């Protein structure tokens, strides 16, 4: 048995549909006190279903499909546009996000009511599906939102604080509305942002060149590049970083390069003209004047040579140290270093470069500041090849070899301790072995090591004897670094200290208070070295020890107490303590 329904005329059916759709819109907008319940949904769904399944000419599928689109467009025109037009920038974007969330709910619920169209009519006619129709209707609001979003980015560039979370949501919506997400991102966001960014920095460049010195200009340009990378990381796709940065570099550096080129050209022309005028006015240059000119030119060339060698060494240091500004991939770093080595081979002041390079190499290797030991080795090898393996590179080559030996023997030393548990001190420690004569001279002193450190020294000496019996180890305690877990009242903090600082702090494990004389006797340090060590722990940035009396100078009559009430925000603190050879300078 089948139930037949009476034919529904268009006006009657559409009025019924429109009435319930208006109620649905009021509920979504939060304007209705009564909910859009299951009965409302079934009545709306049934009416649409019946109007779609009636025999021709009362089959209203096409008209209902057109009305669906018209209804959504009408709602956006009457509600969406006015609500955005009343607000500006950040407030407008907040309303844009709210409108989008309501629009998604509206399209989803209306699509359920028009399900028969989606299931049967639309596929048979190859029409755009209902969800896509809803997106297309909202897409017109994209342009206004995009302009406001870019305006917000410009405000951030000027130093204002903006709602980054809101901006990220807006960018996500613009992409979501797009037909293909990445295509929409590239066309609706990336392309327009790069264009507006170029225009923004083009104006800045014109202003800065007229007002700022070259140095101040470069500082501002560097800050701009950092800011643009920051913008990408917060609300843009990572693929945009290279394009955006290249655009900023082009707009900022090309005008600077042109201005600099013009300035140099004018100055050179002026110098040439001056020389020409002087030559024509005085054809008889005497010997003295010629000699002065020769000395001047020689001094200029010498200054340029020295400066070039030092700058190139500084560039290498920046590239090779772990906290340098240059962050390159392994392949890019190797390629850059190879080019530097080739450049050095053409320099007249190769020996100067090696000296400057060595000065920066030493702290990188000794204080674990090198980002990659393989890069260090590779660069020295390139220098040897380019310079013909001369004595110039032999010293730095052996320095890197010392570090390589230490690195290669870490595993062997661990195996030695595992095989000889009776000599294992139970502490994690590493020893760096340096060849005498290669490295700077460090002040030797007979520090009385605590038992824990003595055990480490004896363990390594036993291991070293298994490697060679022809060499003697001289321990440089001034270069040692220790990690100590110190128990303060608030919490336990790991202190990174020098060997001298560690030996001094360990004295307070057995005593809360010690006099200067007691510390002096137990550590066996010179007065100057002990004063420096005590000062770093009691008057530095972190006051681990309390001094009595509380004066700036340290004297033999003072006493010291462990500061158990010390507090710090970090769980790990590095206590500054300059190596003794640096302090002497």
UniProtKB/TrEMBL annotation:
Top-level division of the source organism's lineage: Eukaryota
InterPro entries, alphabetized: Cullin, Cullin-like_AB, Cullin_homology, Cullin_homology_sf, Cullin_N, Cullin_repeat-like_dom_sf
Xref: Gene3D superfamilies: Cullin Repeats, Cullin, Chain C, Domain 2
Molecular function terms, GO-annotated: ubiquitin protein ligase binding
Residue span(s) of domain Cullin family profile: 307-538
One Pfam family this sequence matches: Cullin
Biological processes, Gene Ontology terms: ubiquitin-dependent protein catabolic process
Similarity comment text for this entry: Belongs to the cullin family.
Protein name per Swiss-Prot or TrEMBL: Cullin family profile domain-containing protein
Organism taxonomic ancestry: Eukaryota, Viridiplantae, Streptophyta, Embryophyta, Tracheophyta
